[in-house]
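User: Assemble these into one structure.

Assistant: Restating your components, then the assembled model:
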Amino acid sequence: MIPGVSSATGGTSAVAVQPRRLSWQLAEVVEVVPETPRTRSLVLEVAGWKGHKAGQHVDIRLTAEDGYQAQRSYSIASAPEDERLVLTVERLEDGEVSPYLTDVLMAGDKLELRGPIGGYFAWEAKDGGPLLLVAGGSGVVPLMAMLRHRAAVSSDVPARLLYSSRSYEEIIYRKELERLVAQDGSLEVIHTLTRSRPKGWSSYHRRIDLKMLKEVGPPPAERLLAFICGPTPLVEGVATALVEIGHDTLYVKTERFGPTGGGG
Amino acid sequence: MGEFRLDGNAAAGPLREVFSFEVTTAQYSCVGCGRTDRLGAAMVYEVRQLGTIVRCPSCDNPLIRLAHNREGYLVDLRGTRYLTTG
């Protein structure tokens, strides 16, 4: 008998592989950090957290006094190497969950969460690159976890982030991205602003399109790993354009937000 | 209550309530068209509070239907020939 595998006839073996149950657990909010007018980062202490891969998410469950429960998924923003788990949450006006997380929650509060979840939209430095990350709005969150992981392990995998925001004020992690670029010659961050732009803005100021991707992305001859995260129309537009340019769909991974922003 | 089209990844949480392995990196084979791919690359239609349908991106065949209520789950796998992990 192979160690660790229970035989069909031998009953339950004590060394049988235990299914890893995904269960709800309590997290404590250590800090709430404002990122932009509409986003906050929640720094969490999760007892017994087993670690995660950059790109994974957690589910958060809120329970009202009458027992009504609402559950949403939020991407993890922190690197696996970071001491604490960080989620960055965008406030959605008609959301059931996000206004509570961004406006009401304070340090010391407790939250129910489960995770890490997902493994498809995830990147580890050993997966290599070059990396092309394309984000729309708060879609940057799981991609930031990848860039933070890449920096934490001093990976020299070439990486480019093309990041679409509505305005300069709404660029999440703007200063940290500037810092990362300044200290790392193999990282490029290219912004585009779709609604308003400050005076003297010299970068793109339109929605991401095929022409922009051709200018920004590596040529199709170069096999890349692409991760696209944002609202559904952006993700589908970018994924289609990348394939049109000639990139292999196998290496283009997407994570769409629903019309409520993937969170609510 | 809208229906949302998302990636297979979005169903990872609900599917982990019934599967003990990470499903988004598992390979499926579609009964409809024979496509094999990772479930994370399939399309997910999620009806809030009611359930989740994972569809094949090539032929729209429902691969997995997952519905739940207070009593338990309904898992319909007739659109999937097999799932493999590893």
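The longest strand of chain A covers residues 25-36.
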